[in-house]
Write a sequence for this structure.
């Protein structure tokens, strides 16, 4: 296995910003300013699956409000 194929053993957390946009961040890192920890942690694949499940409207909160 070369260095490009190393298994990602990082534990991630799912974070969300004020526009209800989601991202993942390493649990070892401080949550970035403007983002809030959702409480979901795990391997990258689990965190991305969680985001796919809960982030069903990719538009930002402000855009959704403007369009309503």
């Amino acid at each position: 296995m070369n260095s490009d194929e190393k298994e990602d053993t990082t534990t991630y957390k799912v974070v969300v910003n004020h526009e209800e946009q989601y991202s993942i961040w390493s649990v070892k890192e401080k949550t970035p300013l403007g983002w809030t920890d959702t409480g979901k942690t795990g391997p990258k694949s689990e965190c991305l699956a969680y985001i796919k499940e809960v982030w069903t409207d990719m538009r930002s909160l402000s855009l959704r409000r403007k369009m309503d």
Residues 44-54 form the longest helix (11 residues). The CA atoms of residues 4 and 46 lie 21 Å apart.
